[in-house]
Design goal:
With 153 residues, chain A is α/β, with parallel strands linked by helices. Chain A contains five helices and six strands; from the N terminus they run αββαβααβαββ. Classes of the chains: A alpha/beta (153), B mainly alpha (502).
Chain lengths: 153, 502
């Protein structure tokens, strides 16, 4: 019966809307006053060219395991090159301790780390977000916005 | 009201309603740790709310559930969660808008977690999806054993968001906690069927039917799953089983009608729809069924009778103040209209319906979703008729909407319409990418298949056509686009291409 209700709703409101893939959300600690970044600014953080937030706190980057689909997608989108090229950026010895990268086993762990570290910025599947983190806009768009750049396939 | 036979476990679930005092008056009851609190000083309102959930969520007696929610807010007009639930579940756009507003008006009287649930209900309706997800996950984490909460969340994830993996995970976790919570079994079967794993659904339906042999919904759900799989005789058998258990289970009555409609027996379908219309007191539901009834004339290629029928239903919808349904009727008339100029006029009427003075009766989300569909249909019809300027102008309107409205229907309508315009311009690769953003809309699939053919992707085009042909539901878009797809496949089977392609 559930789906009959759906189908009737479809008829009236046409809500039959299924998105393949998912949007990835960029999340920061709720105490971080930041509300938005450009994709270019995010890329500078990934490359450790920007190492601190405007309030002076050091930035920590929190990602899923290097070979996870999420990290692969994000690296290609944010840094623009191929996955193998961009993965090297994260392990570049030149970045030393500037913007340390923490790899987490799950989105829950990403959120736990970001929620406990005022300078952390993480990437998660938008369907896993909780009130323990803050979603920031990228290029003035948030997940589900038209043209949101971190929309997965 | 109809006779109700409650399950034993529903008696237990009745205890899960939580605190029944206003937040500022009393601490949440002890049971609030197992279920989201329900705050109202009125025992009558609390009980009616609980019964609303029993009927709507557990038994899937939709009309009865709504009636209990209405009783709840009548007993306590400041019952914020009662208003939110009524606004969330009703199919009447005006009621949805009014009740959501009342929920927000009285939200301060609710407990903090109850407020979160109210925000989730309202945000899902208003296209505030990020906020809705955040509220939902916080509630699921805090109330991991609130079965109804998990079930509702999973239903939203699967049916509205297409987030099947997430919805399935919530349901699997829930069923691990309580394998006998059969509403979740039901939803998991639908989730599998919708996510392209239909073979996983019937075994779950077998469990559901065996566990609740005296309840109509398991048979009804089984009927619908079989209909989705294209097995119409099995669908009819299960729907009729449901009606044997409870002749007043109107969902099965309309299920029988729609199955006949899909089978091509339109006269029988109409007769069954009339029974279903008599079987509901909800005016909006009656009009929804009337729309399905009118569509049967199009299905049997009687366009004059179909237009007359739709015009009659339009008059009824207008009199009932059901603005979205009025617009939907005109959109359906346009999609079936073979004359492009006249179809565009139908769509003008549809837009007029939404912009008349009663538009204030609608939630902005409901209005925008319907308007997006009207504009999408306009772009498609204009492209088909070679009216490029009209298509471009319509796309511009949709683009403006999509810039500010994050709802999935608006987004998909925009991408789909953009795909249609790109198709007209000969940019088939661009059209394919855009049309793939609207993957469950038969009109988009139809054009996607055409674009893939033009782009030389014959195998993909055929796969898309097969997907389209396999869609078996009541939507007007399906009635327009699926039969030609089935015919094309039949033709291809009769006239195979020698030497293969692609």
């Amino acid at each position: 019966m559930r789906n009959r209700l759906l189908v009737i709703c479809v008829l009236v409101l046409s809500v039959a809307s299924v998105a393949f893939g998912t949007d990835y959300a960029i999340v920061v600690n709720p105490a971080n006053p930041l509300r938005a970044l450009s994709l270019v600014e995010l890329g500078k953080i990934f490359k450790a060219k920007t190492t601190i937030w405007p309030d002076g706190k050091g930035i920590t980057l929190v990602l899923r395991e290097p070979n996870s689909p999420a990290t692969k997608f994000i690296l290609e989108k944010v840094l623009g090159g191929t996955f193998d090229e961009e993965k090297a950026v994260l392990s570049d010895p030149g970045r030393k301790n500037a913007v340390p990268v923490v790899f987490a086993e799950s989105d829950e762990e990403v959120m736990r780390i970001v929620g406990g570290n005022a300078g952390a910025v993480g990437v998660i599947d938008v369907y896993n977000i909780t009130g323990g983190v803050k979603v920031i806009k990228i290029d003035d768009k948030q997940p589900f916005d038209p043209g949101y750049v971190l929309k997965g396939r | 009201m109809k006779t109700r036979n409650f399950f034993p476990w529903m008696v237990i679930s009745a205890l899960l309603a939580g605190g029944t005092a206003r937040a500022q008056d009393a601490a949440p009851a002890a049971s609030a740790t197992s279920a989201v609190p329900v705050t109202t000083p009125s025992t009558l309102a609390a009980n009616a709310y609980e019964m609303g959930l029993v009927q709507r969520e557990d038994r899937l007696f939709v009309d009865e559930g709504l009636e209990f929610f209405r009783q709840a807010v009548k007993a306590d007009p400041q019952f914020a969660l009662g208003h939110a639930a009524l606004g969330y579940f009703t199919a009447d756009p005006k009621e949805a808008k009014d009740e959501s507003a009342l929920a927000l008006k009285f939200i301060a009287t609710a407990a903090p977690d109850e407020q979160l649930l109210i925000h989730w209900m309202n945000d899902t309706k208003n296209g505030e999806t990020v906020e809705a997800i955040s509220a939902m996950n916080d509630l699921l984490a805090k109330y991991p054993t609130d079965k109804r909460l998990a079930n509702m969340a999973a239903e939203w994830l699967c049916a509205n968001q297409g987030a099947f993996e997430h919805g399935e995970a919530v349901l699997v976790r829930l069923l691990k906690y309580d394998p006998h919570y059969y509403p979740a079994t039901n939803n998991l079967a639908y989730c599998y069927a919708l996510s392209g794993q239909p073979q996983l659904a019937p075994p779950l339906m077998d469990q559901y039917v065996a566990a609740l042999p005296n309840e109509p919904n398991p048979q009804d759900s089984y009927g619908e799953i079989m209909r989705m799989l294209g097995d119409y005789p099995a669908a009819l058998e299960h729907y009729n089983n449901a009606l044997k258990i409870n002749p007043h289970f109107n969902a099965s009555q309309v299920g029988v009608a729609s199955t006949y409609a899909l089978m091509g027996d339109e006269a029988k379908a109409r007769a069954q729809y009339l029974v279903a219309i008599k079987g509901t007191k909800e005016r909006s539901t009656q009009i929804n069924y009337r729309i399905l009834w009118a569509m049967t004339y199009y299905r049997e290629n009687k366009p004059r009778l179909a237009r007359e029928a739709f015009e009659k239903v339009d008059t009824e919808a207008h009199a009932a103040g059901l603005t979205v349904q009025e617009a939907e009727i005109h959109r359906a008339m346009a999609l079936f209209n073979p004359d492009a100029a006249s179809a565009l006029k139908d769509l003008d009427d549809a837009r007029e319906d939404l912009s008349d003075t009663r538009k204030s009766n609608l939630l902005p989300g409901d209005r925008d979703n319907e308007l997006a569909l009207i504009l999408q249909a306009r772009a498609f019809i204009a492209v088909k008729a070679g009216k490029t300027d009209a298509a471009q102008a319509t796309l511009k309107l949709l683009e403006n909407m999509a810039q500010t409205n994050r709802s999935t229907p608006v987004q998909e309508a925009y991408h789909s319409a953009n795909g249609a315009v790109l198709f007209a311009q000969g940019d088939y690769a661009g059209a394919i990418a855009e049309l793939q953003e609207d993957p469950y809309n038969p009109l988009s699939l139809q054009l996607l298949s055409a674009a893939q053919t033009k782009a030389g992707q014959a195998a993909d085009a055929r796969k898309t056509l097969e997907t389209l042909a396999a869609i078996s539901d009541e939507r007007v878009e399906t009635a327009v686009a699926a039969p030609p797809a089935r015919l094309a496949l039949k033709h291809d089977a009769a006239h195979p291409v020698q030497g293969g392609a692609n």
